[in-house]
Amino acid sequence: MSENTTTTPKTVTRPKLEKPKLYKVILYNDDYTPREFVTLVLRAVFRIAEETGYRIMMTAHKLGSCVVVVCSKEIAETKVTEAMDLAKEAGFPMLMKTEPED
Ligand code: TYC
């Protein structure tokens, strides 16, 4: 048999790349934050159009909570901090939380 045969590998191994985890931003209803303020914050912080923001706000108002966006952990946490800082400054108890997507 020849000494200089070349062999082709039968299998190719690729390193498994972890899919980045996604996080939900959830808006919770309360009895004190004005509807207009919630809609305004959704527009200012999440760049959500007024009509969509109104629908998200009304869903939280009626059902108790609503998913605002799904994004990376870092963006979700930054946006929640920005939104809740605005609420705190204005003296409203508006609550948002991040939660890993299942
Ligand atoms: N429930 C509030 C009101 O009637 C409005 C509201 C909606 C507050 C959604 C928070 O996440 C919220 N003024």
Automatic annotation (TrEMBL):
InterPro entries xref list: ClpS, ClpS_core, Ribosomal_bL12_C/ClpS-like
Domain Adaptor protein ClpS core: from-to ranges: 18-95
Q: Which UniProt keywords apply?
A: Hydrolase, Protease
Q: Where are the transmembrane segments?
A: none
User: Would the keyword Mitochondrion be found if you checked this record's keyword annotation?
Assistant: no
Q: Name one GO biological process term.
A: protein catabolic process
Q: Specify whether Protease is a keyword of the entry.
A: yes
Q: Which Gene3D superfamilies match?
A: 3.30.1390.10
Which is an annotated GO molecular function term of this record? peptidase activity
- Pfam families associated with the record: ClpS
Against PANTHER family, the record matches this protein to:
ATP-DEPENDENT CLP PROTEASE ADAPTER PROTEIN CLPS, ATP-DEPENDENT CLP PROTEASE ADAPTER PROTEIN CLPS1, CHLOROPLASTIC
Say what the protein does. Answer: Involved in the modulation of the specificity of the ClpAP-mediated ATP-dependent protein degradation.
* Oligomeric and partner information: Binds to the N-terminal domain of the chaperone ClpA.
UniProt similarity note: Belongs to the ClpS family.
Q: What is this protein called?
A: ATP-dependent Clp protease adapter protein ClpS
Organism of derivation:
Xaviernesmea oryzae
| Organism classification | Bacteria, Pseudomonadati, Pseudomonadota, Alphaproteobacteria, Hyphomicrobiales
Gene that specifies this protein: clpS
